[in-house]
Design a protein that fits this description.
Elements (H helix, E strand, L loop, with lengths): L4 H39 L32 H23 L10 H5 L7 H22 L13 H11 L2 H14 L4 E7 L5 E7 L10 E7 L6 H4 L3 H8 L5 H15 L10
Antiparallel strand pairs: 1-2, 1-3
Helix pairs in contact: 2-4, 5-6
This protein binds fe (ii) ion.
Length: 273
């Protein structure tokens, strides 16, 4: 049967569209393969990790203390809701996301978070939130401890580095608090080590981790409202001042020593995870 002119043109357009889609599909497939090869090649150089066992399927970590152990500095209600609801929701969403990306399930959470630029766009966007939340909260829980380990001040090499950088521990706390109070919205305040082994205080929005800025965190402070509003309402300063009483400096010192050791051996800025 002879086709009308419009039908022939429509058919030609369909053929061209199909060809373009095939070419795009092949290109994306090759690009995806190259990205996976890049990840695998880069992973062989990895030497340092905060949470080496954090891989799919992810699990909500147990705390080393009870939800009521940080009273009166952080209330039982806040700790329970924060850990059992906020963090658990992030882990569930992270697993639901990763379930659709089988090719990437072999990589650790830190590895994925430091290679977002080579991941599929939708995966990277979800990892920024759910993966970042899982990393940040896991890190934050370990930075806390009830007395007698919680509170006080750092010792050893970390104390010396803080004194060198900030003049004194009190000046460090003041600088950390000012950085926290100057930020608006849902933020985290961090003490990190850069690749020159210099201490830096940074704040990140939402669930960004310092890892994405090539910084190695050693202390984290969750300043989302869910971390303090039920207890302190809008008074963020009150939360900051009480929080120092439950900082687990032994863990922070451990992080600093581990980071210094890792930085002494890395050849590439992303060889630490
Ligand atoms: Fe939080």
């Amino acid at each position: 049967m002879k086709r009308k002119k419009g039908e022939a043109l429509f058919s030609l357009k369909n053929s061209i569209s199909a060809a373009v889609l095939v070419l795009v599909g092949v290109a994306l497939g090759r690009w995806g393969d190259q990205m996976l090869q890049t990840l695998q090649k880069s992973m062989q150089a990895a030497t340092f990790s905060y949470f080496p066992d954090y891989k799919y399927p992810f699990v909500l970590p147990e705390l080393a203390y009870g939800h009521d152990a940080l009273e009166p500095y952080i209330s039982t209600q806040i700790m329970y809701l924060h850990h059992v609801h906020q963090h658990r929701l992030a882990v569930e969403n992270l697993n639901e996301t990763m379930r659709e990306y089988a090719a990437y399930q072999q990589y650790s959470l830190e590895y994925l978070l430091t290679h977002l630029e080579v991941l599929p766009y939708e995966l990277a966007e979800k990892l920024k939130n759910f993966g970042g939340s899982h990393f940040n909260h896991s890190f934050f829980w370990r930075c806390l401890s009830p007395a007698p380990q919680g509170g006080g001040m750092p010792q050893g090499r970390l104390k010396e580095a803080i004194d060198r950088k900030f003049g004194s521990f009190e000046n460090f706390k003041r600088t950390f608090a000012i950085a926290t109070l100057q930020c608006v919205g849902s933020v985290w305040t961090w003490l990190c080590c850069d690749h020159q082994k210099d201490l830096v205080i940074v704040t990140t929005m939402n669930y960004e981790t310092p890892l994405t800025r090539d910084l190695l965190p050693i202390l984290s402070f969750d300043v989302w409202e869910h971390a303090y509003y039920l207890q302190h309402h809008h008074k963020r300063l009150a939360y900051v001042l009480l929080w120092w009483n439950v900082v687990n400096w032994a863990y922070v010192e451990h992080n600093y020593d581990a980071v210094l050791t890792a930085l002494a051996h890395v050849k590439h800025k992303k060889d630490y995870n």
